[in-house]
Design goal:
Helix content: 25-40%
Order of helices and strands: EHEHHEHHEH
Shape: globular
Strand order of the largest sheet: 2-1-3-4
Mean pLDDT: 88
Number of helices: 6
Number of strands: 4
């Protein structure tokens, strides 16, 4: 059975495409092939755009391949993904209010950081430089 994970942030150009790329890369390094990973944003402001150049740079510096076109969360995501992971509490609330969440959702919707030892949200690095991307990556 393939596990499917959707990583979500606000615009889908910084945190979530990096999370998608890192999760996919870590799974492959560990020999896990029965996983589908994607990312999306709760807002549509960057739909169709590539990841932020600083995000691409940090992924490259960490040997993490990244290729993504930004998109907004769709109602169908709640029935096609097993897990939907929000970068922070604001995006988690947006996901919980999304129409798809109440229409037969099979997805477990959680804070992405809830799987990390410190249980902290992933801060938005959009207005920061490369250092903020390194924190996001780590």
């Amino acid at each position: 059975m393939t596990i499917s994970v959707l990583v979500v942030c606000l615009g889908n150009i910084c945190r979530s495409p990096m999370g998608e790329a890192v999760l996919r890369n870590e799974a492959l390094k560990r020999g896990i092939t029965d996983i589908h990973v994607d990312s999306a944003g709760t807002a549509a402001a960057h739909t169709g755009e590539d990841p932020d150049e600083r995000t691409i740079t940090v992924c490259g510096m960490n040997d993490v391949p990244i290729s993504h076109s930004a998109r907004q969360v769709r109602a169908s995501d709640f029935t096609s993904f097993n897990y939907i992971l929000a970068a922070d509490s604001s995006n988690l609330r947006a996901l919980e209010r999304h129409v798809g969440h109440s229409e037969g959702s099979k997805a477990t919707v959680k804070l992405w950081g809830s799987y990390l030892p410190d249980n902290k949200p992933i801060q938005d690095p959009y207005y920061g430089g490369l250092v903020s991307r390194f924190h996001c990556h780590n």
